[in-house]
Amino acid sequence: MKVYIKFISSIFIKSLLFVFFMMTSLVFLLNLLSELEFFKNEEVRISFTLFMSLLNTPAIIFEMFPFVLLLTIQLFFIKMFENKEIEIFKYSGLKNSNILGILS
């Protein structure tokens, strides 16, 4: 495997993990708040609401996964533009469409 493919893949995976964990934490917190609101008149333990939020989070993330990928690709290209790495790849003969081909 060529060095630039490893480099592009590592930046993309780092961006994907960052966006995925941020979205997961946001979904978990919002889901926890909605569960607390739902059970406010009931006498349940906080561990039950945490458990319910934890069980519901993967389903919501699965529905949001196209948006996670969209945000990941945007973050990836922002990092590439800020570090001027995209210009280096263009001087080397690599186009944006080739970079997207590598990612897909």
Portion of residues within helices:
over 70%
Radius of gyration: 19 Å
Low-confidence stretches: none
The biggest beta sheet, please?
Answer: none
Task: Return the structural class.
Answer: mainly alpha
Which outline best applies? Answer: rod-shaped
Overall pLDDT metric: 91
Number of strands: 0
Q: How is this structure best described in words?
A:
It is a single chain. This protein has 104 residues and is mostly helical. 85% of the residues lie in helices and 0% in strands. It is built from four helices and no strands. The chain has helices at residues 3-38, 46-82, 85-91, 96-103. Helix 1 packs antiparallel against helix 2. The longest helix is centred in the middle third of the chain and has 37 residues, at 46-82. It is rod-shaped and about 65 Å long. The two termini are 16 Å apart.
Structural topology:
Blueprint: H1 3-38, H2 46-82, H3 85-91, H4 96-103
Helix pairs in contact: 1-2
What features would you highlight for this structure?
104 residues, mainly alpha, single chain, 0% strand, 85% helix
Q: What's this model, at a glance?
A:
The protein has helices spanning 3-38, 46-82, 85-91, 96-103.
